[in-house]
Write a structure and sequence with these properties.
It is built from six helices and no strands. It has 121 residues and is mostly helical. Helix 4 runs antiparallel to helix 5. It is elongated. The chain starts with a helix and ends with a helix. 83% of the residues lie in helices and 0% in strands.
Amino acid sequence: MTQKTIKIAGWVLTIIIALLFGLSASLKFMQSEETLTQAAAIGIDGKTYLIIGIIEIASLLLFIIPRTGVIGTLLLAAYLGGAIATHLTHQQPVILAVSVQVLIWITAFIRFPELRQRLFV
């Protein structure tokens, strides 16, 4: 693969991740009755749900910006780790969160060669 193809693939995957997290955060910001009911089922109130949405957007922005992308990767990975733990605690399926976690790491390895070098030396 050429460097141009690798760069394009990295940005396409980044856009997919941005759309997923953007949708998720927007649902948290809208505070609809359905999403608040789902959050309440796992013990999260509306204010906490809003704070989670802010953390989600902040982490996503750091991930998108090339200069802060590695720290954004770590924050999104930690965010999804918490989501996976919460799902497991409440006997909910984790396949979606695990899939997004894998997608984030694949994207990070494509976009940030320095991260790949540090982890696989």
